[in-house]
Amino acid sequence: MSQAAPFPSYEELAALIVELRSELAQARFRIADLEARLGQNSTNSSKPPSSDGLAKPAPKSLRGKSGRGPGRPKGQPGATLRQVETPDETFTHRPGPCTGCGADLLDAPVVGVERRQVFDLPEEIRLQVTEHRLLSIRCACGKKARAAAPAQVAAPVQYGPRLAAVGVYLMHGQFLSKDRTARALADLFGAPVAVATVAGWVRRCARTLDAFGRAVAGQVAAAPLAFFDETGFRTAGCLHWLHSASTGMFVHLSVHRRRGTEATDAAGILPAFRGVAMHDAWAPYDTYTEATHALCSAHALRELVAVTECGSEQARCAAYRAIDALLALKKAADAARTAGAERIADRLSTGELKALRTAVRDGVKATTARSSRTECKHNALFKRLYSRWDDYLRWVHDLRLPFDNNPAEQTIRMAKLRIKVSGSLRTLLGAQDFAAIRTYLATADRHGQNMLDVLDQAMRGRPWTPATI
């Protein structure tokens, strides 16, 4: 008969309980960290809205009610369809017999005309074929001379620059794939364009825009205020980076295999920039010490929201107070700009700045233990808000500066659509061509130009150029 195992002693049980409690605490910290990471989205982190996917969170804005009703904002120009004086085609309609006596009204006098116009595309949109005949003429001396072909007429049969411009517009202006671009040209215009032809148009357009891209980079580098951002850009089977530098009138995009200073040096803007650089808190931007740095307060708000969702009770309290103070300062700055004032009222700014400073200090204290990965992240946020106070709040003291880095994020957002449609770009050269064309189109759009018209000019070898360049 086997002997029963001896019961563990009190000391052994106590040691086991201590060990299990330690493992449980570690497991809880790890679970909290994982839940915090899984809970990240575009509303509480720097992740772009495109990363939310089908799990996109319900709208939760920190903005208060504006008091404005629905519809077009007051003062914003509308787009109302209006009649033209000279229509392309006119049809006249006469009424039938008189509804009173039944008489025929064919010869009755016209006493009024009501005009109604329909704006539509023609029933048939087709290619227009233009033939160029190059005559060869023999001189009396016996020598034969042949006429030179016009520019852009290089082959016996070819597509013209306008159709090529439409192809580039559909692909990199409206983000169709090459296959869908070729199909759209066939369906719309009866043009059986090969996919390789579309790719050739894109390459030719990008080559034409080399000088334009350099000129735009110079304009951004010389600006008093510029916005900078970067995002992952799947290219050539691995992760590359799309870098954006923009002003109110110019946009420069570039693609590079690296994310850091090697890429920004290659773009050639930040090394020469001496104005105010608005960006997020990504460290490599700070290596350019000749620029004055301004950090995006919207990024800080999103990080503070994350603290309110998964921080400790003291940290959440500090984050809520910091959010309230930041939003109050933003509201005061917006009101001051609307009123034409040069600065926020001293009484208001002093009180809210003091409240914000106190909240940040309390946040640092509440997260000092750094007992988990999430709390380390929250502690780093509060310390950054404290140590880079001036960079986060330049817009409070200078109303010409913006609250956020939205202009840079907007330029990035459009480019991300290319990756959402295609999944990736197959070659680095193709990605660089995309960046060159989007630089051209985005800059033209900010100058009020029609994208198709400027692409037509580029495909003719004469790219549109702003008057300021």
Report on the architecture of this protein.
This protein is an alpha/beta fold and 469 residues long. It has helices at residues 10-38, 161-173, 178-189, 195-208, 210-221, 261-267, 297-310, 313-338, 346-366, 373-387, 389-392, 394-397, 406-422, 428-446, 451-459; strands spanning 136-138, 144-146, 225-235, 238-246, 251-256, 276-279, 292-295. The chain contains 15 helices and 7 strands.
Structural class: alpha/beta
Numbering strands along the chain, what is their spatial order in the largest sheet?
5-4-3-6-7
Unreliable segments (pLDDT under 50, ≥5 consecutive)? none
How many β-strand stretches? 7
Biggest β-sheet strands, sense, barrel: 5 strands, mixed
Radius of gyration: 32 Å
How far the N terminus sits from the C terminus, by CA atoms, comes to 99 Å
| β-sheet strand percentage | 5-15%
N-to-C SSE series? HEEHHHHEEEHEEHHHHHHHHH
Work out the helix count: 15
Q: Helix share of residues? A: 40-55%
How are the elements arranged and paired?
Layout lengths: L9 H29 L97 E3 L5 E3 L14 H13 L4 H12 L5 H14 L1 H12 L3 E11 L2 E9 L4 E6 L4 H7 L8 E4 L12 E4 L1 H14 L2 H26 L7 H21 L6 H15 L1 H4 L1 H4 L8 H17 L5 H19 L4 H9 L10
Parallel strand pairs: 3-6, 6-7
Antiparallel strand pairs: 1-2, 3-4, 4-5
Summed up:
This protein is α/β, with parallel strands linked by helices. It is 46% helix and 9% strand. Helix 3 crosses helix 4 (195-208), helix 5 (210-221) crosses helix 14 (428-446) and helix 7 (297-310) runs antiparallel to helix 10.
